[in-house]
Design goal:
Structural class: alpha+beta
Strand order of the largest sheet: 10-11-15-14
Largest sheet: 4 strands, mixed
CATH class of the domain at 242-358: Mainly Beta
Helix content: 25-40%
Shape: elongated
Number of strands: 15
């Protein structure tokens, strides 16, 4: 049998909070609602079993000393008190947390939106109101353990024969048996069903952000309190806008003539059509910043910027008339066609480009 600490991926001296965090992290990955693979379902059972032992101080101490057999507490019970009663475990237990992923587009991520989530989860059985019993009946006391939830047996140890306590196999440690189980939930007190949950997605979210909906997870056995539902955001890529944190980037191409004499162009943005001024002498690779047209800041105030990257298109095919015109312009500007100027590092921003590339 695998070591329970290894199953949860925690150290043997891990605190209760560490064990709880580790379990919740694993449960979100292996829960049947998230991962329907049968092998993952078995893994989820192992994780849950490990958590039930390590999250209970008495069971954990028993496991640390004696593993699957008797432990130190059993020996102490036998010699100092004859078997301390721990009592039956409750049928009403808290439910598991759940995780679902929701896709949003850039517009929704920027301005926020509202959604109705249709999820399949465990809800309280309406037929028995979570009791697990049919016809308004009640669980009866277990005939084997007499309601204690435990049975005792003799085991051999280094100190001789000792009396050890184990969960009752007849009632699974509940101390009671449901003689007339509910036909709808088979005595579990909950059923699988689909339900709609409204959610408000705040402006500024991005891939990886999670929204916690308290009490919207699975209802526990016996109609126990529901866990939490975590909604993980997946942001879909836009057709022509790129997001970098709270800033947006758009790339446009303009003719060399427009770059030389300047012009005004209209582009599509998340805020509708916007006019962009191209100044005279604009160079390829330059940018124009439209303030406050980026993504809403999730933690903070205001919005980022929309940065327009400009690429100047050099004509590749010229007829004779066009070629003559370019030659005339070159002659007027005293720009010999054979002249070459080597830029310094400062002029070409060489090192800045390298730094940006490696970022």
């Amino acid at each position: 049998m695998a070591d329970l600490y290894e199953t949860l991926g925690v150290d043997r001296d891990a605190s209760f909070d560490d064990i709880k965090k580790a379990y919740r992290k694993l449960a979100r990955s292996y829960h049947p609602d998230v991962n329907p693979d049968p092998e993952m379902a078995e893994k989820f059972k192992e994780i849950t079993a490990a958590y039930e032992v390590l999250s209970d101080p008495d069971k954990r101490q028993n496991y640390d000393v004696g593993g699957n057999g008797f432990g130190f507490s059993d020996i102490m019970d036998a010699f100092f008190g004859g078997g301390q009663q721990r009592g039956p475990r409750p049928r009403n237990r808290p439910g598991q947390d759940a995780l679902i992923r929701v896709e949003v587009d850039l517009m929704e991520a920027t301005f926020g939106c509202e959604r109705d989530l249709n999820v399949e989860t465990a809800i309280t059985c309406n037929k028995c109101n979570g009791t697990g019993c049919a016809n308004n009946s009640k669980p009866r006391t277990c005939d084997i353990c007499k309601g204690r939830g435990e049975t005792q047996q003799v085991a051999r140890s280094i100190l001789g024969q000792v009396m050890t306590s184990r969960p009752c196999a007849s009632c699974q440690g509940f101390g009671s048996v449901i003689s007339d189980p509910c036909g709808e939930c088979a005595g579990d007190g909950r059923v699988r069903a689909r339900k709609s949950i409204p959610i408000k997605i705040p402006a500024g979210v991005e891939t990886g952000n999670r929204i916690q909906l308290s009490g919207q997870g699975e209802v526990g056995p016996g109609g126990g309190a529901a866990g939490d539902l975590y909604v993980e955001i997946i942001e879909l890529p836009h057709d022509f806008i790129i997001r970098k944190e709270s800033n947006l980037h758009i790339s446009i191409s303009i003719p060399v003539t427009s770059a030389a004499i300047g012009t005004k162009v209209v582009i599509d943005t998340l805020d509708g059509k916007q006019e962009v001024e191209i100044k005279e002498g604009t160079q390829s690779g330059s940018t124009v910043v439209l303030r406050g047209l980026g993504v809403t800041k999730l933690r903070g105030s205001g919005r980022g910027d929309l940065i327009v990257h400009i690429q100047v298109l050099t004509p590749t095919k010229l007829n004779k008339e066009q070629t003559d015109l370019f030659k005339k312009i070159a002659s007027i500007r005293n720009e010999g066609l054979d002249k070459v100027k080597i830029n310094t590092n400062e002029e070409q921003g060489f090192f800045d480009k390298v730094k940006r590339a490696f970022r």
